[in-house]
Amino acid sequence: MMRARGLARLARSGYARGQWVYSSLGSGESAPLLLEHSSHFRNPLQSSREVLGCRVIYSWVSNAISTVGQQVQLQSSSAVEEQVDPFSLVADELSILADRLRSMVVAEVPKLASAAEYFFKLGVEGKRFRPTVLLLMATALDLPIQRQISEAAVNTLSSELRTRQQCIAEITEMIHVASLLHDDVLDDADTRRGIGSLNYVMGNKLAVLAGDFLLSRACVALASLKNTEVVSLLAKVVEHLVTGETMQMTTTSDQRCSMEYYMEKTYYKTASLISNSCKAIALLAGQTADVSNLAFEYGKNLGLAFQLIDDVLDFTGTSTSLGKGSLSDIRHGIVTAPILFAIEEFPELRLIVNQGFEKSSNVDRRTRELAAKHASLASAAIDALPENEDEVVQRSRRALVELTHLVITRTK
Amino acid sequence: MMSVRGLARLAKSRGRWVYSSLESAPLLLELPSHFRNPLQSSPQVLGCRVIYAWASNAFSTARQQADLRSSSAVEKQVDPFSVVADELSILADRLRSLVVADVPELASAAEYFFKLGVEGKRFRPTVLLLMATALDLPIQRQTSETAVNALSTELRTRQQCIAEITEMIHVASLLHDDVLDDADTRRGIGSLNYVMGNKLAVLAGNFLLSRAFLALASLKNTEVASLLAKVVDHLVTGEIMQMTTTSDQRCSMEYYMEKTYCKTASLISNSCKAVALLAGQSAEVSNLAFEYGKNLGLAFQLIDDVLDFTGTSTSLGKGSLSDIRHGIVTAPILFATEEFPELRVIVNQGFEKSSNVDRALEYLSMSSGIQRTRELAAKHASLASAAIDALPENEDEVVQRSRRALVELTHTVITRTK
């Protein structure tokens, strides 16, 4: 689950509009630093305005692994680049989406609606990472405004496009939740997202049916966009989710120890959804193939980085030591990147893969390095997007870049 | 399950022969000169040989008729399934290639019901291919012949694609239904969930759905895409309706027909309409195609309900009774509750106790439930037939034959005994 922990910033004091940015942090296991208006701030790392021309403050709230620390970026260029909190940037829009999704999900049959809604209820829905990325991407890809068209026309077009892009975000969530519902049935997991999962609470059959329900509504919404290329993309996503899950179920022992196989599986299970829906956003916006591919690359690398850190956190949790995480992957016999790296150092580990590992010190680092590499590929994709002077667009792009940092520095 | 029993015919003078696959001992038909059927009519009298063979025990009220037509414009009965048999095997091959997966276990699961011998009767693709031909627009004489041929082939391929998509969606829904019903068998073999587990069955169903949509996208027709997306929605809705009925709904004929539309008829009706749309037909004609599919599907299911009670015999309780044992209340029972309100009480109690099943059967036999269901089925069958008759005139022999085949299906659907 994605949380923006360990990061809270104040916007620059020089920022004329007086906005301030507050990161909503997850239920604090450790106490986050609450930032209010700049005048109340007490962080020791405060730098004087006079020196920098801005205050950029970071706070640490997590114990990071020694080789990966938070970096304090002190930007001193005159074109000050504000850091943004990606999640709050789209918070309002997200709640509109959540409402729309909830009402779309209300079927004629109440029993099933509550089953599907189960996962959309606040508090269970996680950070809504995927829709956040997609909405930011939508803004980031806004084409420069055509000046000759009347403003009303532009507004109508933009809001119609925006609605369609929001629809992609909704479809993506439905597909994602449907796959979770079906995975839960299959894995006999008794918790998912911290509370009793659907199949435990309501029975396997209803879980299968609820997943089917979401998938079918996603199909209808998809068809309603009247864009067959987008239909192809998201159909492929469903195929990939199934492929990834099957790969995970049916690995041979050789494949289990193969980093290549693991990355392919990870692409299918995690990154494909984000990458292809980012691309779909771009296509709906009428972007070129080049730009659509950049969006794809962003989503793909962000997703991979996200999963790799997920793997690390499963071992480390919020502490610096190994074995303090939930260890649920390894307990389910799922071999992830850190183990795979460890196997390269300790071939004997291959034989005792189920007993976990103890001595290896570098695996965590190597996995984080790989995650960082993907995160910077994602960031590069955003930087490669065509120039756009618009302030709102630029802010969304900064938010997307910010996400690539958050994904790898999170501790939960 | 649909089978064309009791029907085998010889084709007309061109010397083609038509062989229907039958479950009971079929009469093997070879070329006319070797024929030995006692019903043989001399060529001089008829101008052609048209022979029928019985192979099934039909209900007394429904018998195969030996049609000795003596009009000069001979209207030949057609066996719908054999008309499209060759094309169906092309489709089967293509379907197998469409569901190939890289991961071995997924591949086995996905292709499970597309293998030779277990494709089922392929009722839906048969209807769709016949509909495609039946809706052929008259040939434009000014266009060059090669252009027409190329266009027709391309259109035909696209319509075949609809048939393939329909089969994928259909099988996907079967896979999930079997998981939901804990079914052991399907199409005469172990169900996929029984053989490979619920997990793989659910995943394979999703996989087939995704492949269906990929194929759908390739047609680049957004209206057709919407139609088939709607079908998927209806299939799930129908299943939900079946699993979550209130007691009022369970005794409601209206609810039952709506559920039946969702579960059975929607797929056929909307895919027939899709075939019409691809052919560039008008909204009116597309709706006729829709109506045909819808009424055919409803008739089919109603007879299915009857057969679950009667099986191949005339008496009740000789069918598999699987519906009622699964607590699924179908049309015959619903009609019976109208005559015997006390049956309603039993229905609400459910059918876990076999004593309730027995009592329900008693009431059913006293009622006209079976009869009324058959009548309703016949009504829908003739609505389907009427839709075909309402299609725009087309002189072409091939088109006419397909239309006759479609009409023939409306008869077969209600006279079948299995």
UniProtKB/TrEMBL annotation, chain A:
GO terms for biological process: isoprenoid biosynthetic process; ubiquinone biosynthetic process. The keyword Lipoprotein does not apply. InterPro entries: Isoprenoid_synthase_dom_sf (IPR008949), Polyprenyl_synt (IPR000092), Polyprenyl_synt_CS (IPR033749). The keyword Transferase applies. Keywords: Isoprene biosynthesis, Magnesium, Metal-binding, Mitochondrion, Transferase. It is found in: Mitochondrion. One of its GO terms (cellular component) is mitochondrion. Its cofactor is Mg(2+). It comes from the Eukaryota. GO terms for molecular function: metal ion binding; prenyltransferase activity. Belongs to the FPP/GGPP synthase family. This is Hexaprenyl-diphosphate synthase. It comes from Salvia splendens.
